[in-house]
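can u do me a favor
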């Protein structure tokens, strides 16, 4: 009988085949979203069965099979059945000024943190379906409960996925979970990262390797998996790395973080070179001094803050005031500001790839060169 067709792979390719031209030069495809449908009873619309599609090694072969099924059906399907018995409804919808990310699917790593939560909230507000991924299952569930009631149109548009960015199998499983729920992915925000404080002469090698695994290997695994999935879908896409001002202006006793984030930044720049031919844009945002998202404290500043406060004789509020006063605009940088920079790239405001937007209130030493 042969191997069963991988549902995530099948749906990702099918989602690309069902995308329709948008007539927008910077974003040429109008996507669909699949939603699980337990029963077709009493529901109208054209049903197309993909039950006869056979597992093959190459994506192009699988794409050709499904294109043949769709052409033979001679209808635009409203529902599909896939090998194994799963059934899906097909949601269609055009982007608008209010919802420029309508029917786009975003995956955010490190979503349970302050910056990640702000990014998830902003993507939802612009119409996207959002997969919030992190290691902390309880924190993800809390985030989904927090964001769902705030946005009346968000029900069914946010899901939490437990994912370890340092493990290739876990990353692949996370992307599979999103594809099996909604069909694929269009936007990937690489945000997972950890920090530590130590001078180089006291830096524990295993502690450094822990940062390297998350900040460098985690970025590499996420970039690579995102690139594979977006190429498979064949409708372009956007990858945005949450970098840091420390790439351009590193801080004393912050060598492990600065060095590993610089490596992640460089990987994203290389991805922008390698993926541009598939209309996959890779850009970076470089924030500084984001202490919280509402009541949700930044994990980075929970690690860094105590030593910075001790060194300067400040309490928590005093430290925030210090960082505000040192930037040119004397501005408090928030997770919403970081999210706005992510949205600039995700909504394709300009034909840009390989670029960095500083989100730091103005720090001349950290200006990208």
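np, heres the sequence
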């Amino acid at each position: 009988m042969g191997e069963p067709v991988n549902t995530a792979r099948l749906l990702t390719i099918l989602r690309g085949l069902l995308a329709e031209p948008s007539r927008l030069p910077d974003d040429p495809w109008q996507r669909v979203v699949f939603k699980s449908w337990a029963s077709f009873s009493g529901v109208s619309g054209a049903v197309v069965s993909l039950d006869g599609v056979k597992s093959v090694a190459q994506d192009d072969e699988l794409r050709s099979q499904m294109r043949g099924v769709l052409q033979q059906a001679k209808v635009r399907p409203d529902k599909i059945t896939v090998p194994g018995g799963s059934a899906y409804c097909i949601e269609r919808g055009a982007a608008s000024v209010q919802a420029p990310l309508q029917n786009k699917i975003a995956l955010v790593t490190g979503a349970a943190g302050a910056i990640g939560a702000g990014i998830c909230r902003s993507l939802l507000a612009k119409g996207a379906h959002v997969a919030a991924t992190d290691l902390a299952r309880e924190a993800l569930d809390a985030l989904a409960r927090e964001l769902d009631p705030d946005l009346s149109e968000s029900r069914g548009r946010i899901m939490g996925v437990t994912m370890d960015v340092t493990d290739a199998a876990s990353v692949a499983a996370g992307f599979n979970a999103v594809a099996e729920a909604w069909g694929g992915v269009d936007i990937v925000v690489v945000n997972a990262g950890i920090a530590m404080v130590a001078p180089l002469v006291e830096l524990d090698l295993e502690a450094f390797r822990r940062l390297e695994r998350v900040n460098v290997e985690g970025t590499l695994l996420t970039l690579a998996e995102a690139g594979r999935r977006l190429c498979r879908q064949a409708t372009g896409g956007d990858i945005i790395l949450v970098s840091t001002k420390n790439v351009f202006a590193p801080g004393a006793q912050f060598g492990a973080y600065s060095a590993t984030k610089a490596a992640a930044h460089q990987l994203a720049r290389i991805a922008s070179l390698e993926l541009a031919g598939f209309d996959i844009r890779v850009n970076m945002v470089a924030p500084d001094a984001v202490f919280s998202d509402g009541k949700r404290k930044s994990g980075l500043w929970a690690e860094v803050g105590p030593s910075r406060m001790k060194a300067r004789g400040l309490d928590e509020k005093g430290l925030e005031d210090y960082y505000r006063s040192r930037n040119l605009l004397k501005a408090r940088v928030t997770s919403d500001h970081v999210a706005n920079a992510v949205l600039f790239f995700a909504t394709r405001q300009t034909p840009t790839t390989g670029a960095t937007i500083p989100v730091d209130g103005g720090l001349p030493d950290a200006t990208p060169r």
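The chain has a mean pLDDT of 91. hope that helps!!
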